[in-house]
Request: fold
Amino acid sequence: MMSFAREIIVPTSSDETTNISERHQRLKAIFPGAIGALDGTLVHAVVPTNQQNCYRGRGKVVCYQNVLGICDFDMIFTFVWAGWEGIAHDSRVLKEVASNPTSGFPFPPPDVTLTFIDKYYLCDAAYTNTRGFLTPYRNTRYWLADFRRRRPISKEERFNHAHAQLRNVIERAYGVLKARFPILKQMAPYPFPVQRDVVIACFAMNMVTPNMQGGGSEGIEWGLEGTEYMTTLRNQIADQLFSTASN
Reply:
């Protein structure tokens, strides 16, 4: 099953999606470089008593393992890394996994179409806004529930609302996965390495369409240059959204 998972959970070979709704097309047009969404999720874990503090995720009583996943806009998972302690911050998990040469992390591929559109994943504010990873504005409304009673007004809110709508694909993908495999909500007391493999197996069995092409291998620019680049890109998209709404 682990060999099957390595074969099937791989980056998609095309930017095209089968979801051709008008709303989806509009959101994709706002973020032309987006190739998917990246986020972590908590999966129930059974661990020895002397290790439970590390697995009690973010103020929770129950133990969890933190799982990092990436999916495309057809809700197909293209990467998964399981087994982190529930207490681990999402940003730390990403940095550690991305720097691990054995993880096979699919860095956003370079532009090979001469369109000069850099590729990136949509991430929430728990992550660093750096090249290849586009996050929302912080200290500004972001979650979809935040906009139910009041429409976005500022350019930052307009950006965050559009970003949240498109990034929400990974929230829905996780929801479908956990509904299909109840063991992810109530793990059996296997040895922890087996629990980790069970998670990966569930991701693999959830797949319906195999994908064929890997991503790039450029690494993540955690420094100032990468952050400034994506901040500029985010501002450009926000300005364009605000200008369009004002006309």
